[in-house]
Design a protein that fits this description.
434 Repressor (Amino-terminal Domain), globular, alpha+beta, 10 strands, 20 helices, six-stranded mixed β-sheet
């Protein structure tokens, strides 16, 4: 049997030859002796004819059998042909988004030249902006999370079943208990990564030696980091996730399935360490405060055997589900101590594409965001000999819009395993529902700032925090002036 892509390519070639000869389906049907419906299914990539029918088609189209069955295509269809011959389409997680492969095939077959031009444009853009497969896979994973408001009831229930099965009713499991579960339940041995022999692995947090059934963990991992690594390994095994990465953190995936498995196992670990109902109850109490209190938030985080980042990310599961706060975004920003360079490496948008996001174009992110302020504060604390987790709040309005957000950011100082200071920030759109649910959102002591995306694109003239000239904005102004002059000269 021919695979799907051979069928599509064959169908495209038959359609191209038929239309090139200006033959209708009815006319080709008479010449070949095949039914119109069968020819239609061939061109849509649903059927691949047997050798005797290929001979009839070739004769009807005045071609040799080799010509119509080869993978050679005219230049206009080359991009489509290359796409179909590659393994790219099979890697697309179409089923996650409810898209049938056949629908994609029909789109290609209806307008192959236009689709080819579109694909060529995407390829060219990806080259110009250094987009790679791994960015696509992670982007598809974010989209999947966003479609589900980052809450997955099936995994939540699987964690409940796991804890019941192993008689662990407490939600404060420590690394020793997790190790015991891995060893007794799955025969997995826990060891340290031998950095003395492999210093190049200093940035790797964990490695699974599959044949030996050994999980190697970075020797500098603290208790809370171990909990994530061990909990994730339990997630892979209990959820029976076969196509999974063998190391963490996952950086350059070769396919989508390991990215999905990594997400599910990480979600499993976070759910196991932070019971949804307990977290929701504490968040409800915190949100009932009339004034903002960052120290109170840090105190809640400290009650759990998880990293502060895990806790903040867990809130993106809890807030949409239990508080109906669905207009929400999450960003993670990093900076090497005293470098002055800030990068966004993780973004999540629920319900809509909110303004703050990572554009990956190597510009200077707006220094007015609380995400940057809190990183600067961590550096100032370090100069005084202090290193601690801090939480800050900020109200922001994105320049040129009416959208206002309540942003809550947690700053986490660098450590042996996490070599950069990071800030994890979630923002919630300020509307009547937020003001009702989060009482301290009306606290006048929460600072307010007008913000933008990057300095290079920002027209704010009196910005004291500006880190670069607004040359992109200036180019836009020049082009608008040119358009105005052209309109006056040519006529609207």
């Amino acid at each position: 049997m021919k695979n799907q892509y051979q069928k599509i390519i064959f169908g495209l070639k038959i359609k191209e030859l038929r239309t090139g000869k200006e033959l209708s389906f009815s006319e080709l049907s008479k010449l070949s002796g095949m039914s119109i419906s069968y020819l239609n299914e061939i061109e849509k990539g649903k059927k691949y004819p047997k050798p005797d029918k290929i001979k009839l088609l070739a004769k009807a189209l005045d071609q040799t059998e080799e010509e119509i069955t080869s993978f050679e295509m005219n230049p206009a269809l080359l991009p489509v042909g290359e796409l179909l011959k590659s393994n790219f389409l099979s890697e697309l997680p179409l089923d996650l988004f409810g898209i049938e492969m056949q629908k994609v095939v029909e789109i290609i077959s209806k307008a192959p030249m236009r689709v080819g031009a579109f694909i060529s444009t995407l390829v060219e853009l990806s080259r110009n902006y250094a987009l790679q497969e791994e960015n696509f896979y992670f982007g598809a994973m974010r989209a999947y999370q966003e479609l589900h408001y980052n809450y997955f009831e099936k995994i939540e229930l699987e964690v409940d079943r796991f804890l019941d099965l192993y008689s662990h009713n407490e939600d404060q499991l420590d690394s020793k208990q997790l190790e015991e579960l891995l060893m007794k339940g799955y025969g997995c041995k826990i060891k340290e990564i031998p950095l003395v022999n492999y210093p190049e692995l200093s940035n790797v947090h964990s490695i699974l030696k599959l044949k030996e059934n050994e999980l190697l963990i970075h020797p500098d991992a603290n208790e809370k980091q171990k909990n994530l690594l061990l909990g994730r390994e339990l997630g892979y095994r209990f959820l029976n996730l076969k196509e999974r990465p063998l190391y963490a953190p996952l950086r350059i995936p070769q396919a989508f399935e390991p990215v999905l498995s990594n997400f599910k196992a990480t979600y499993f670990a976070a759910t196991m360490m932070m019971n949804r109902k307990k977290v929701a109850k504490q968040v409800e109490k915190f949100c009932s405060r009339p004034t903002w209190d960052g120290d109170a938030l840090v105190d809640i985080i400290k009650r759990y055997n998880v990293t502060p980042e895990m806790f903040v990310h867990r809130l993106t599961n809890i807030l949409p589900k239990y508080f109906q706060l669905k207009q929400l975004f999450f960003i993670r920003m990093r900076t090497a101590p005293d470098s002055g360079r800030f990068t966004i490496d993780k973004v999540l948008h629920l319900n809509q594409s909110h303004h703050p996001h990572s554009n990956k174009i190597y510009e200077h992110y707006c220094r007015r965001w609380v995400s940057v302020d809190i990183l600067k504060e961590l550096q100032e604390l370090r100069k005084k000999g202090e290193e601690r987790v801090i939480a800050r709040a900020q109200k922001t309005k994105y320049y040129g819009t009416d959208d206002e957000y309540l942003n809550i950011s947690v700053g986490i100082p660098a450590g042996p395993l996490q070599k950069k200071d990071i800030s994890v920030t979630f923002g919630i759109l300020m509307d009547d529902w937020l003001k009702k649910v989060v009482r301290f959102s009306s606290d006048p002591n929460i600072p307010f700032r007008i913000v933008n995306k990057t300095c290079e694109r920002c027209p704010i003239s009196d910005c004291k925090e500006r880190a670069a000239e607004p040359f992109v904005h200036q180019q836009k102004l020049e082009w608008r002036a040119t358009q105005d002059s052209l309109s006056q000269l040519i006529g609207k």
